[in-house]
């Protein structure tokens, strides 16, 4: 709680951060609030590893891993692209697991009133302390290392339903 976020420490990363690590749920909010949350919730914990022990290293390595994973290319190869089309969540999960060999965690916003589809809010890949991809699901005999729900502002992300049509948004939207 005492290691506060300082955007000046990542000034040279900001162009890439704006492009590659946007807040897809809150387009109107100050962008740095989202990154501040990421640093205070995750970065300060990750900083126990020397390779991530500063804001610059944490965000820089996260961007490097993001570009390496190249999620959009993987989904495009499976015929899944950001659009107004709906997809089956099982098809998205299967494509990701087949391509990466691990199970990511996908979180959605539930359908808005009068709508039928959930909206992907976050696709999370998990890594070992050696920064190798690993399953985000719990192994036998251990508790789930990831909370099921994630509160960001007033929006509630939760584990996506396999039965609802799924919208993969092409741009930032404001949800009511």
Would you give an account of this structure?
It catalyses: a guanylyl-uridine-RNA = a 3'-end 2',3'-cyclophospho-GMP-RNA + a 5'-end dephospho-uridine-RNA; an adenylyl-uridine-RNA = a 3'-end 2',3'-cyclophospho-AMP-RNA + a 5'-end dephospho-uridine-RNA. It comes from Strigops habroptila. Belongs to the RNase T2 family. This is Ribonuclease T2. The chain has two domains: 10-69, no CATH class; 84-167, Ribonuclease T2-like (Ribonuclease Rh, Chain A, Alpha-Beta Complex). A hairpin with an 8-residue loop joins strand 2 and strand 3 (118-124). It contains five helices and eight strands; from the N terminus they run H-H-H-H-E-H-E-E-E-E-E-E-E. It has a six-stranded mixed beta sheet. The chain is α+β, with helices and mostly antiparallel strands and 176 residues long. The relative contact order is 0.17.
């Amino acid at each position: 709680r005492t290691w506060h976020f300082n955007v000046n420490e990542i000034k040279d990363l900001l162009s890439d951060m704006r492009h590659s690590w946007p807040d897809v749920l809150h387009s109107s909010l100050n962008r740095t609030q989202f990154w501040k949350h990421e640093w205070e919730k995750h970065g300060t914990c990750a900083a126990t590893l020397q390779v991530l022990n500063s804001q610059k290293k944490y965000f820089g390595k996260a961007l490097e891993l993001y570009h390496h994973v190249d999620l959009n290319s993987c989904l495009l190869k499976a015929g899944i692209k950001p659009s107004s089309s709906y997809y089956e969540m099982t098809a998205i999960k299967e494509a990701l697991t087949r391509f990466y060999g691990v199970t990511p965690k996908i979180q959605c916003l539930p359908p808005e009133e009068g709508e039928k589809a959930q909206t992907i809010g976050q696709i999370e890949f998990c890594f070992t302390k050696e920064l190798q991809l690993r399953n985000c699901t719990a192994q036998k005999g251990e508790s789930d290392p990831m909370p099921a729900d994630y509160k960001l502002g007033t929006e509630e992300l939760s584990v996506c339903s396999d039965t609802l049509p799924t919208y993969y948004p092409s741009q930032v939207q404001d949800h009511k």
